[in-house]
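Notebook entry, structure prediction.
Reason for the run: the old model in the group folder had no record of what sequence produced it. Starting over properly, with the input documented here first.
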Amino acid sequence: MKSLVRFFSILSLITISLGNILAQESWSLEQCIAYAIENNIQLKQQELNVRVNENRYTQSKFAHLPNLNANANHNYNFGRAIDYGSNTVSSDLASTSMSISSSVTLFGGFQITNTREQNSIDLQASISDVNELKNNISLNIASAYLQILFYEELVETNKKQVELSELQKDRTQILVKAGSLPEGNLFEIEAQLASDELQLVSAQNQLDMAYLVLIQMLDLKTIENFRIQKPNLEGFDETIPSDSPLNLFEQSQNFLPQIKAANLRVISAQKGLAIAKGGYYPRLSLSGSYSTGARNYLKENPPLLTNDPFMEQIKQNASYSVGLNLTIPIFNAWQVRTSVSNARINTEMARLNFENKKNTLFKEIQQASADATAALKKYQATTKSLSALQESYRYTEQKFGLGMVTTLDYTTAKTRLAKSETDLLQAKYEFIFKTKILDFYKGNPIKL
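New structure, fully documented this time:
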């Protein structure tokens, strides 16, 4: 018994340890994107819309087939009634009637064909909508992911600033005790330390909020120990893609789903116009039917009436019909003309939406290219500035230790250095994100 208890205790410890290991596993950008696409509710709703369009298309493929319907009735008539077999008056009858009919449209202004083609186009457009949403999710996840990386580095930078201020505080205390510096210098350094600690707390809060944003995007229910992987971005390519915004636009409009969907909806609207115009054409249909029936008397048969067996009446009362039906529209209260007019308007609206999508895409590519260029220039300029400020800060720090500069000069140099480091981080991650967007417009997947 004790060995069994010991076994389950060990098993529980192993399970808990494995759970902690799995809970602490960090997520890569690719994992975050894949999880978001798999679990996004809006995306699932969009996929359901695709299934609805699939059903519509499937139904429209069978619209050209003939229909077939059967009908059966059984009635009890009490009082005076006309017997259809002998055309005489009777009373209290039980009657049964059955029929089967079928019809098929031979010509309907090509509306059936155009409706099938329109539903096929709408299905393709809805699939493109799903792909567009996937792309938007990927871009949003990448942006949130890079924000976390930025704030993680910002926290580390602020920690170094706090360490420098603490070190300078210790040095200043020694100099104040030795009488080399006035006590006011110590107060100013302590104020600078408090300011640096505040900046660290602010950066940590921003990091927590960045994690919260990503967690909410992923719709995670359990967020304990959630962390992301930190890729190696030290050797990132500090060049702008050579393609011009116009070349990127020409490439991207051939495969981006939002452009494809807008173009498909123009074609769908044109099919809708053809369907509306089909209302001007005559309609020709073929129909056929078979019907029969029987009656039984509930009382003694009156004179001149017979009470044939049920199946005998069914055979004798059977009738068949086959016919062609031609409907020629002459005047229908302007319904067809109004439908055609609305279809033309819908076609023009779809065309304008398509042009607007292309214009928006071109502007987005232009903006991304300009932002990437500006971020790279800022990164290169800030790198040079940071190198100079680091040398200036070291020189000021040495002079401050010798009492050759005031505390204000020291804190000013330190603040400028911290701001330059923050600017460098911002430019770095902004440039990385914008170049990833430019790569995306070239058809490359988003990854770090």
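Summary: Confidence is low (pLDDT under 50) at residues 1-24.
The old model has been moved to the deprecated folder.
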